[in-house]
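Support case: user asked for a sample of complex input and structure output to validate their parser. Sending the pair below.
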Amino acid sequence: MSNAEAAESNPAPRPRAGRPRSVESRRAIIQSAMHILQNDGYAALNIEAIAAKAGVSKQTIYRWWSSAAFIVLEALIADMPSQEGLVPDTGSIRGDLQELVRPTVRALSQRRGAVYKALIAEAQADPRFAEAFRAQLMSAHREIVRAVVARAQLRGEVPFEVDGDLAADLVYGPILYRLLNGHATLDETFAFDLIDAVVSGLRYRDAGVKRAAEAAE
Amino acid sequence: MSNAEAAESNPAPRPRAGRPRSVESRRAIIQSAMHILQNDGYAALNIEAIAAKAGVSKQTIYRWWSSAAFIVLEALIADMPSQEGLVPDTGSIRGDLQELVRPTVRALSQRRGAVYKALIAEAQADPRFAEAFRAQLMSAHREIVRAVVARAQLRGEVPFEVDGDLAADLVYGPILYRLLNGHATLDETFAFDLIDAVVSGLRYRDAGVKRAAEAAE
Amino acid sequence: MSNAEAAESNPAPRPRAGRPRSVESRRAIIQSAMHILQNDGYAALNIEAIAAKAGVSKQTIYRWWSSAAFIVLEALIADMPSQEGLVPDTGSIRGDLQELVRPTVRALSQRRGAVYKALIAEAQADPRFAEAFRAQLMSAHREIVRAVVARAQLRGEVPFEVDGDLAADLVYGPILYRLLNGHATLDETFAFDLIDAVVSGLRYRDAGVKRAAEAAE
Amino acid sequence: MSNAEAAESNPAPRPRAGRPRSVESRRAIIQSAMHILQNDGYAALNIEAIAAKAGVSKQTIYRWWSSAAFIVLEALIADMPSQEGLVPDTGSIRGDLQELVRPTVRALSQRRGAVYKALIAEAQADPRFAEAFRAQLMSAHREIVRAVVARAQLRGEVPFEVDGDLAADLVYGPILYRLLNGHATLDETFAFDLIDAVVSGLRYRDAGVKRAAEAAE
DNA sequence: TAATAATCGAGACGGTACGTCACGTCTTGGA
DNA sequence: TCCAAGACGTGACGTACCGTCTCGATTATTA
């Protein structure tokens, strides 16, 4: 969560001394950043360009964000519909995951994909951003999968031994892989086949484990 | 494939006029690049630093490579053991994939991981490098999985409907995800669980498809 | 003259409405400025540093001074011993000027020298400060020389044609020159030789003028 | 002496490896600097402005000069007529010094004055520039006075005890003082009176010294 | 006793210039 | 034709101060 967010959600909004942060500047910076990102690509997204476009001093940007990636992350979070926090509930794990993955794949195959690619690339070079990206964005997505799996376990669809974290890896891993490596398209067919395989893998995992144990004897 | 590779694999290495390419410079450049990469990280890997360390002019580097990433890619390929091209053959798809994934995961959890992270990040910003990375490195890994799956299909372990490409996505996707997102470690347990789930997913995929078809009615 | 001085010397200090100026802040600002000047040099003397050291807001500084140089000037004036205003009276112009120049040279060869150098440099870039520096500091020094010369003229030591202003130039010019150019030290010997030459120059000036007039014929 | 000067005067101009320094860039930088200085004043003379006007990169400027002041100094030296190195020879010390000081005073009262003021101010903040300014500019002026005095001593006009360095201080000190302090104009009258007093001071100095020695008894 | 007025600290703001870094290109002499 | 050396224009970096502008709080005079 960014400083600004923290301040806003502060239960005791003690009016600190000094001139308060300009909300117009904040908005202009985030909007300018997203505008440049959409129009000219992440390579063109630098602090000087954002500052110039937003009519803001570089110092003001650096005061609140440590790099352009953090600005984009903040925009992404602000843009994230709270309904996305709602876990789909179709009655089956297969349906839930389909419901979850299909829009994700669709979004990533469009403009959103380039943004995520850039942020993930950025995270490889900046550990501080990696941590923020993981905590503020990725973990929310993973949490949904965990919740879906937990519900399926209560329903008896999936054995209790199945780890929700592994399930999240199985779901998002291949999507990320295609997104970043670009060896194939992110389309509906892929989403269907991916979920199909993941669900089968989770359901029949006990059989596999048993067989592996037998092989180890 | 880089210019250098193209020149080397040229079946008719017609000796062009002029001074031939210096093999010492080529070696020094690649070694210096890898040395900087290991010691100071990818962020410190720039052409000027490589040139200085290798005792080479920048021009010489630019003549043969278009960016530092290509140098690293060339080093990686040269370093890639030809035996890695061999498809493991343990008699079961589970064993084959275990044999394949365990050393991969081990390598990525060590120094090799940082190198891959950096190159994948670079690929997001440079489409030309992305293409080279995919063609020269990733495709080889994917091909092995496809071969393993094909053999398992002949053995009757896995239905023929299973797509080898999807299998590769299922295997490498989660690995890449953990590598890049860093939410969990790349260890033996993960490798085992991953393969376990993937194999189950591939084997029982028909059942899942059938059930999905039924649900669609 | 600064606003502060004007306010203090205001014969009718009609108490304006509102919170009065904080004497602690004024003192802290001046002391902090001199402390920074002595320890880190004039280059490090900026408003932000003074404000931070004095525990004062920048606004408060800007309200009363237009630049750091004015703060230093105020400190210098406050520090200036009123006895320095006393014209030395040894009975001879030579003795008077020696009495005047020796302590000046000694002070300038120590810490005071750096302060003067900085202020004179500042005056070259800021005409408003130049005016203040001249009026509040330099003119006092020059006035003493003029008084000494006038007394010597009454005594008959120096012809009445001699201009007191030129005498001040002759006395302080070389001192300033050595201070700013740094080609030689400001020491007792220099002070003695300087005054010796100046006094001779002033005393026998008529001879020179007469000879010059003859040459002009 | 700047690097460039050193290189030019190098008796063995060994053609060093690498691209040679661009003479056009050097010329453009110096001209642009002087142009800005004349038109907008020293306060507006910053590296970015010079680079922009000269169509040159900042790096190129920083490669050869450490500040704008050094550029101006180089321009001043290049502009310095070699005939200025010639010592005036009118047959009398009075005439020689008049010949020397009159054009100096005239130049300083015009555009040249602002340049000198700025450079002397700069020298107070930058010891490295102070050294260069002293060695490359001031020392030449002082040397002329020393030569004039030495000739006058051979002629018997001035006693041998007179120190040429003190003479230089006496001549240039008051000029500098008026230039920097601005309490009076630099005009012909001042030049005449100054030299008149200095010559008298130097000629009759023995009398003064004798009198001082008597006083010390 | 309130209203008015000026000050104070804190600190965010737009702005300018800094000096550095790395880029990719160009221009030498020499191999 | 390649090589090392190294200078060049370009563009962005992150920092330092500038002088100004809100804030809430404080402290005086004035109504």
